[in-house]
Design brief:
GO terms for molecular function: glucan endo-1,3-beta-D-glucosidase activity. This is glucan endo-1,3-beta-D-glucosidase. By secondary structure, the chain is of the alpha/beta class. The protein contains eleven helices and 14 strands. The protein has helices at about 30-45, 65-70, 85-90, 105-110, 115-125, 145-165, 195-210, 220-225, 230-235, 255-270, 295-310; strands at about 15-20, 20-25, 50-55, 75-80, 95-100, 130-140, 170-180, 180-185, 190-195, 215-220, 245, 255, 280-285, 325. Helix 3 (about 85-90) links the parallel strand 4 and strand 5 (about 95-100). The two termini are about 25 Å apart. Residues about 1-45 have low confidence and may be disordered.
């Protein structure tokens, strides 16, 4: 909270109440400063939701239409999985906060050459100086044994150096992992990184701590329900689930599967020297067809309950702290390669790509 210490007695005073705290301002300059403070306050306590813009389909609207839809529905943040010049141009001046991924296939090339990393930043970030880049996610769900695993840490360092050289060091560099990287997630206090993931993520955690960047994690409660690990109610944030529990190691109470997943990530970070890190939930959603429990009503319940939860509650381990979260996804993607057992992968979209209409009721702000 900002305190105004030295105010002349001859000035006229105004009082305003915000969240139960009386704030003192003087006219006219301090009223201006107060307005900036209030804007900052509301920016950090509301609107934590973004949406992922996947493009694996032959009927996805063009990027200009998509950006217009983000504006129409007051969606303040977007994640995109690789550079797309048309989309980046459409985002110019939009004021939409933006996560841009470095595709996994580029990690080794960018790790092997600082010049290549400099070129990537120049062509995909610096060139678009009126786009609100928030994070660069270097890789998405990188797995042990993939070429990108050995290259990940160096690629992150090279991208970070390139951003600094371009005077863009306010853009945070991170990577995106997923729940498969963690073990012993029940109860959440036991959570840890699997050894094969910790081997290449440990230096990444040190990098994030040093740079004060968050870790991005994809969290899907749907898979817990699909695998019959938890009830539908527990996965959908619905009350009075028979899966509710108290963690015996810290007495924290868990009423939904999302919080249990998230706090197991925090526990794993604490065990790996990353206890100071924030977690951004870079994907979460529910499919509308193609699998057990995949339906429009369940997707509607999940997305709306998620939106309300992350904007105000926080998790038991970080109670009261809003959780920056990105819903997956904007559209169904008919270009995804699936088998009969994972047909649901095509149907995470909140919007129909052909009609551009919401498939169910949801508010984003």
């Amino acid at each position: 909270m900002v305190r105004f210490k030295h105010i002349k007695k001859t000035q006229k005073y105004y009082f305003m109440k915000m969240s139960g705290v009386r704030m003192l301002a003087s006219s006219p300059m301090l009223l201006f400063l107060l307005s900036l403070l209030m804007a900052s306050y509301f920016d950090t306590t509301a609107g934590q939701i973004g949406v992922c813009f996947g493009q694996m389909g032959n009927n996805i609207p063009n990027p200009a239409e998509v950006v217009a839809m983000f504006k129409q529905y007051s969606i303040p943040r977007m994640r995109m999985y690789g550079p797309n010049p048309n989309a980046l141009n459409a985002l110019r001046g939009s004021n939409i906060e933006f996560i841009l991924d470095v595709p996994n296939g580029d990690l080794k090339r960018l790790a092997d050459s600082q010049a290549e990393a400099n070129t990537w930043v120049r062509d995909n970030v610096q060139k678009y100086n009126d786009v609100r880049f928030k994070y660069i996610s270097v890789g998405n769900e990188v797995k042990p044994g993939e070429p990108g695993a050995a290259a990940l840490f160096q690629a992150m360092q090279n991208i970070d150096r390139a951003l600094s050289a371009a005077r863009l060091s306010d853009i945070k560099v991170s990577t995106t992992t997923f729940m498969r990287a963690f073990a012993d997630t029940y109860p959440p206090s036991r959570g840890r990184f699997k050894d094969e993931y910790r081997n290449f993520l440990q230096p990444v955690i040190g990098f994030l701590v040093n740079k004060r960047s968050p870790l991005l994690v994809n969290i899907y409660t749907y898979f817990g329900y699909m695998n019959r690990d938890v009830s539908l109610e527990f996965a959908l944030f619905q009350p009075n689930s028979n899966n509710e529990f108290t963690d015996p190691n810290n007495q924290l109470r868990y009423q939904n599967f999302f919080d249990a997943n998230l706090d197991s990530v925090y526990a794993a970070l604490e065990k790996s020297g990353g206890g100071s890190l924030d977690v951004v939930v870079s994907e979460s959603g529910w499919p509308t067809q193609g699998g057990p429990g995949a339906s429009v009503p369940n997707a509607e319940a999940y997305v709306n309950n998620l939106r309300l939860h992350v904007n105000k509650n926080g998790s038991p381990k970080r109670s009261g702290k809003p959780i920056e979260t990105y819903i997956f996804a904007m559209f169904d993607e008919n270009g995804k390669q699936t088998s009969p057992n994972d047909e649901y992968e095509k149907y995470w979209g909140m919007f129909s790509p052909t009609t551009r209409q919401l498939k169910y009721g949801v508010k984003f702000n």
